[in-house]
Amino acid sequence: MAKMLFIVPYAKCYLNFYWDLIESLVQDGHRVTAVAPDTDAEVALTAIGVRCIRIPIKNTGINPFYDIRSVYYLTRILREERPDILCCYSIKPILYGALAARMARSRRVFVTVTGLGYLFTGRTWKQRLLLPLVSFLYRFAFQHCERAFFENPDDLRLFKQLGLIKRNNTTIVNGSGVNLDKFTMTGNRPVISQVPLTFILIARIIKDKGIYEYIEAARILKAKYPAVKLSLLGPFDSNPSAISKTQVAKWMEEGVVNYLGEAADVRPYLRDSNIFVLPSYREGTPKSTLEAMAMGLPIITTDVPGCRETVIQGFNGMIVPVKNGGALAAAMERFILNPQLAEVMGTNSRELAETKYDVHKVIGKVRDMIQI
């Protein structure tokens, strides 16, 4: 049996994205250690036999002294724990985890690119200044890992174009998958013919998730269909593109959107909705979309990497141009004018989730590549 160590940017990743993988490893007798900067998942992880270690690491922002400290602690942990396999998820765990693994002489290192992040999606002076450094660290990480997993082909293609990957040691997986036994179509969903349609966007409250476009579309639709409901669910964030609580409160006062707060379990909110909307600027593979698909909601999303893969146009939803609130409103209006589309496309969403995004299929592929 193997001794495995995982590094994530925040502890809730274990609950929201990698729980099924870790649980399967523990059930098979492997020794799992979970590293994170906080303790939000410690009770749940400890209950299934996972050892938890807290480490100072921030997934956003650049502070050289803090980041050097992060690498130091990671190196010390790896030297003490001596894991057979190290798995790093997201930007800083990959960049600093690979560097620490090299210094600690950890041999079997696997990294998962869950999206490109803030530095690759904009053109500010700060992004242009930091991108060469981050690119150098990515090259180092890919050179010294056994395998790199990507959640969509566009991210892999871009990394190859930028010269960040020079070895043929990559695999594309369909995100972290979705548990089809947990997210089901059963339950008391509102009857479309009897109530106004409810649209829902579930994401971190940041600009890059397309929230401003969602609000623009909401204003257009509310002016024509006052009874339609538009909901927003998700946590506030420290990301550079974060939207303030004050701004969300103004939208609430305006009456264009209903902010539902943050939820540990999104299923009741999906069950109370008819159509899922994610007008994101770029994703790895959005877990929120997969969960909505599994629960039988049609999807409206943008024609960008990570999002376009979740929709077959006209089958389980609609794909719209990115950063275009008018086009988003037009797609949403199609469901208002023909509500039965939601039922048909929602059933198709579930079918697509079963064939492509079943978490057990994703886990099986990852474990085959890791050979464990």
TrEMBL record:
It comes from the Bacteria. It holds the Pfam family Glyco_trans_4_4. Residues 20-163 form the Glycosyltransferase subfamily 4-like N-terminal domain. CDD domains: GT4_CapM-like (cd03808). InterPro entries: Glyco_trans_1, Glyco_trans_4-like_N. Residues 197-351 form the Glycosyl transferase family domain. This is Glycosyltransferase family 4 protein.
